[in-house]
Known about the structure:
The structure holds 2 protein chains of 2 kinds.
Chain A: H1 5-21, E1 29-32, H2 52-55, H3 61-71, E2 75-78, H4 89-98, E3 102-107, H5 112-115, E4 125-130, H6 135-142, H7 147-160, E5 164-171, H8 177-190, E6 195-200, H9 216-226, H10 241-247, E7 262-264, E8 267-271, E9 276-280, H11 283-289, H12 309-322, H13 324-336
Parallel strand pairs in A: 1-2, 1-7, 2-3, 3-4, 4-5, 5-6
Antiparallel strand pairs in A: 7-8, 8-9
Helix pairs in contact in A: 3-4, 8-9, 12-13
Chain B: E1 3-7, H1 10-15, E2 20-22, H2 26-35, E3 40-49, E4 59-67, E5 70-73, H3 77-90, E6 94-101, H4 109-119, E7 121-125, H5 128-137, E8 142-150, H6 158-161, H7 170-177, H8 183-212, H9 223-228
Parallel strand pairs in B: 1-2, 1-3, 3-8, 4-6, 6-7
Antiparallel strand pairs in B: 3-7, 4-5, 4-8
Helix pairs in contact in B: 2-5, 3-8
Amino acid sequence: MGIPVRQAVAVSGYLMKQKLKGNKRYPLVLMLEPLYRCNLACAGCGKIQHPESVLNTYLTPEQCWAAADECGAPVVSIAGGEPLVHPQIDEIVRGLVARKKFVYLCTNAILLERWLPKLTPSAYLTISVHMDGLRDLHDRMVDRAGTFDRAVAGIREAKRRGFRVSTNTTVFADSSPEQMGQLFTFLMEDLRVDGMMVSPGYDYPKAPDQRVFLRRPQMIETFRRIFALPGRRKWRFFHTPLFLEFLQGKQAMQCTAWGNPTRSVFGWQRPCYLMAEGYVPTFRQLIEETEWDRYGYGRDARCTNCMAHCGYEATAVKATMASPLEGIRAGAGALLGKGA
Amino acid sequence: MRTLVVAPTLREARMLSGDVLAARSPDAVLARLAQQPADVVLIAGICGGLDPSLAPGALVLSRRLVACGRPDLAPPDVLVEAARRALRTLRRPFVSSTLLSVDQPLATRRGKTDAWNTHGAAGVDMETYTLAEALAGRGVPWLALRAVLDPASAALPTAVAGWRGEQDERAIARAALRRPFDWPAYVRLALQSRTALGALARAVPAVVRAIDEIQDLAQAPSPDAAQRDLPIIAVR
Lengths: 340, 236
């Protein structure tokens, strides 16, 4: 299956409720960063360059739950840092699942096998494993040998224990379309993951290696080639068809930065998951006091090469809801297991 | 601070108040400035929407101008910031973004999507770049404000797609009459035109007032504005 029907129905209901309430800006996915500490130092990551004092700061479970309650998004993506470094991650997940949030626990899976006995499979929990390529490419991108094998072992064990497992792949300059195609086929056919997510890398100024990032025209070309590969029909993505078309330059979209608000150890991050211009203590302040019209492709130079799902999937979901035809296409994808 | 408002067509000029000149040609604008100097020229009119988040009537304030194969142009930061502040008080949707100038209307959805992906421009028109280039050549500060007529998701009807800036719109009307299947699209366009021109009519006086209040055009931009005006380098 692609996106679970239960999740698709819950998210659709939530969106309709927001529409009926007349809310102009509302969150779809809470990006929860309970810590910045990570056990890897990936070439394209701009999240973990903080002093030790910050890296040693973790959100408590209560703070995480309060963030989920405050923002109200139906989906919570736990990122970081590496969430499995957090000593209370099982407690955080349990609390979010109890609130009927659809939780995506994003991990590099190095510690996954250790944590699995403490987590409970649920329709509300998806373990989302970071996979940037097959062995050589993945280990090079995360700058640590053996990580690919650990991730594969973690995925197999999670599947064996009955967890829903997805993968999250970032496409960089070194990722050839053919390599990406081989990876997706491997993930679907060998590991039998429930779905995949894919996004071009964002050119974080703080990332250790700036050469890994694609420019927007290259991204479009790369995704066109990836989706023209013969095995494409067997791949299931946890994305709307519109977002996948956007990646191939077939759809024009503007970023919906407020669709994926970010709560980190500093507070609510302004304006989006990828850019940090400051922090505010409450979600309401984030939504009401941010000058949203200043951000987005064509409006801010830092958004020029961003086509990340954290900015554009919310746009695609809204467009899907607004168009009966797109709604049917996405619904059919979810029901037929072709990915939304 | 004296501001001359330049509207490319009579239809646009008629909606605007104050010192307004209807002109598409840089020569006409420069001739007018020679007779009656102005401190700032505000180029105001309607545009095609490329930014898919903009509906008809949304305003595009130029932060940068692009045209294929030509160097980018940018208005003074102090003008952009003053206009932004004025537009915020209007509580109408607006963005300060890039404007693309082309030789002929972008009539198809596909063409608009490609232009959006290539240039990251919020709107597209046929005059701003040429006018701004001439003004910049004479050292006249300029600013452009456009209201979205047709959104990124809409194609233009055939007769409008063939428009090349003629002031006489009777030829378009005649061509439209010959294609009854396009009539609903013209009705929609007429309604959108009303919305866009209405938005422009409300926004231009506010921007002119904000420009009037500027004491010194050479005043330094805020660090925030400078940060945002980093060149968009990757899309051309």
